[in-house]
Amino acid sequence: MNRAILAVAVLGLSLATAQPLQNRILIARSLDGLDWQRTGIVFCDSADVPDAVRGPDQRFYVHYQGLWDPRRDGIMVAISTDGLSNWERHQVSIPGTETWPGKPCDPDVIMFGDTFRLYFTGDPTGDGSPETHSAVSRDGWNFVLEPGIRFEVQNRAVLDPSLIRTGDTFRYFAGGADPGVNWHALSTDGLVFTRQPDVVLDSLMLSNGLALDTGYRFYGFRNLLPCGIKSLFSADGGTWTPEPGWRLQIDSTSPLEYRYVKDAAVVRADSGFIMYYVTRKREAALEESREPRRHGMGQLPSFVRGVLRLRGDSREHAGCRAELLDISGRKVTDLVSGANDVSGLAPGVYFVRSGLSSGLKVLLGE
């Protein structure tokens, strides 16, 4: 993709590109899916956006965005008999996507008997409006691309698909809509989706849903204050009600957690539930903004509290329109050349997107 060269300064806040390299996935356990205890187990350093299922062999399959090599990330899968240790890891192969400008990312898996169907974000044309695509596999890592697009919105980004099967209905949610809003669609076969009215659910970005004995639960997270992981319950999959309290919030005393907890993927275990969730690595702060041109930034930022400053490296870039998006791709605000007040925003991952850019991922920290 052609990326506009923008100098992005977050003044009074720290700035960094947010890639799997800067995040880690941790593990928590629960007996009821509501009250969670951290295990202190690092599932994977340098990883993001997990999704978890039990395979036909009853092993745990966790798909996530990880590092294929030090300079390149992609979808991976880790397989374990207990969901906690002794992981077998594979790069996920989807032949036919190698030349896509917007590579496959944001995995979400639904099981069809002994078949894995992977829903993922991709941009095969490089038009800056990624869509949801799908592929199928018998082993969980060698996938065959299915033709067509599962869900798209004209001239808008569709990011981080999350699906749940309720009876004979596939319920689809994704980010990229306005702040606090989820794209929503329904399908009877998991391939052809009909768009439904956008959904607002406690200002959450929905990350993972699963069936319970008494209904269904969806986990989601907030990118704006107060931040953390929450959950919703539905008896039929059609009407969702926020469940009281938080499932997890950042533990500022933990050496493993930093800045946020997000993207919960939850799976049933033999006893209770296991959660795989994302946080920031503390040591990543040492690497912030060292190589601005490598990440499409024109120059190092200067710092004044509470201001995001955009400067173009040319007259063409200086006049371009830009938007600030949250982690789900939802528009937070328009940006102008020069100073922008961001003092009201919570720390977290955001995107700066211009008319010339597919989106520069940045981190606003305390």
TrEMBL record:
Keywords: Signal. InterPro entries: Glyco_hydro_beta-prop_sf. It comes from the Bacteria. Residues 1-18 form the signal peptide. This is Glycosyl hydrolase family 32 N-terminal domain-containing protein. It comes from candidate division WOR-3 bacterium. The lineage of its organism: Bacteria, Bacteria division WOR-3.
